[in-house]
Amino acid sequence: MPETLLQPDRGQPAHPIHLVTPDGVDAWLKVQPPRVRSALAAQRFTGKAGGHAVYVDDNVQAIIVAATPGPWTLARAVAALPGGTYRVNGDLGPAALGWLLGQYRFDRYRKADDTAARILLTSDAAAIDETLRIARATALVRDLVNTGAGDLGPAELEVIAEQLAQQHGATVTVTHGDALATGYPLIHAVGQAAVKERAPRLIELEWGDPAHPRIGVVGKGVVFDTGGLDIKPAAGMRLMKKDMGGAAHALALADLVMAARLPVRLHLLIPAVENAIAGNAFRPGDVLRSRLGPTVENTNTDAEGRLILADALTKAGEGKPELILDFATLTGAARVALGPDLPPLFTDDDALADDLLAAGTALDDPMWRLPLWDGYDDMLASDIADMVNAPDGGFAGAITAALFLRRFVPKGVAWAHMDVFAWRPSAKPGRPKGGDAYAVRACYAVLKQRYPC
Fold first, then answer.
1. Structurally, how many domains does the chain consist of?
2. Residues 306, 406, 407, 441: which is the catalytic one?
């Protein structure tokens, strides 16, 4: 995200933008000169939320935007404006983020957008760095999820982690090969059928003062999911490049934490695999041993995300963190229940749930809490092992997946699981169709609140 798109206001020449709430448009129009009212009427500007119009006032091109306050206030307008420098007359608030994200383009596989930059001036110079950090983190999620699986495998996720480590002074440890097979058997089992160049691994990044509170951030990194031997149909496999969306979210949140230099000891864990099909692919009916020790009867090779997360969560818990957050494109059941825009939040910690939900509402980055219903825990029972990874019947799929993960989180550790979609099926202002970040801004806000600098 170019830093030049948001600049401090030093009185530079700029086109004025008037932000007016829809119910305040009539009053605003009444005090405008007739030429302005005529120009807006000619454009059929009605003041409907999200509408905007361009007019000339005192020989300067000006813009009126009818919008409710929030991050997406300017997102629709910026996409339609020509290149240039602009200034909001009044309180900008969080709208600067939408200005930046409204100019996001994914150009890796096509000609770059040649639209001139639209620069926004702000008198709140202190907010520029933070807004740019959040915009860059969101763009990172979008870029990674939008990238084709042929160009983004476990090795490429490792490179991204290394780049963040170099940028922020962190250390990266990668476990693969025989060490993965013995130390993280579930991660190894899921990824063992991939070709050598896309071999499975556990990527760990650590940053911060060891004396500070330890937090774990875990992201599901299935770079492509065929479904394994329980193969997905074509329609179900079409978007499976996005199955590493949890890893993208975790990388973005880690970047925000390190860039803000929050007083924490950060432990980022990404189990990175390709769920491929080959003669050595793990099979339905196989009994797998976890890093924690309990055995898992594999009832569905397409329920692989929870398997790799189980070993990663176990490793995160071994560091005795006071908080673990995990992100995963885990279940279709979550989409059936809540749709693509609203990720379910699972946690047994009421205070953590309250904080995350409040932050999501305040930032227009919402979640919806679903229960870790103990009554469904027996659905994970197996006749031959300690548990199954996917119960029969399909009932409460998002809940039983979360209950499976909970078994690998140490007692007494605050933990939240976000079952994110990581994809926007249709465009909204500032949020183009394609890969997108969900709940990252809310989680970051809670971390800033709990661990202030």
1. 2
2. 306
Question: What pTM does this model have?
Answer: 0.97
- For 154-171, the pLDDT digits (tens) are 999 999 999 999 999 999
Listed residue (154, 96, 104, 152) closest to 122, CA to CA:
96
Judge if 64 and 151 occupy the same domain: no
> Exactly one of 232, 289, 448, 450 is catalytic; which is it?
232
CA count, 13 A, side-chain hemisphere, 310:
31
Distances (CA, A) of 442 to 35, 95, 361, 450: 44, 16, 8, 12
Is 1 among the domain residues? no
The reply to whether 306 belongs to the active site is: yes
Does pLDDT of 176 surpass 90?
A: yes
> pLDDT band at 145, cuts 50/70/90?
very high
As given in the structure block, the two tokens for residue 301 are 């090779």
Domain that holds residue 434: 133-450
Does residue 114 belong to any structural domain of this protein? Answer: no
Say whether both 287 and 332 belong to one domain.
yes
- The Cα 419–Cα 338 span in angstroms is 11
Active site residue 232: yes
Q: What's the N-to-C CA distance of the chain in angstroms?
A: 25
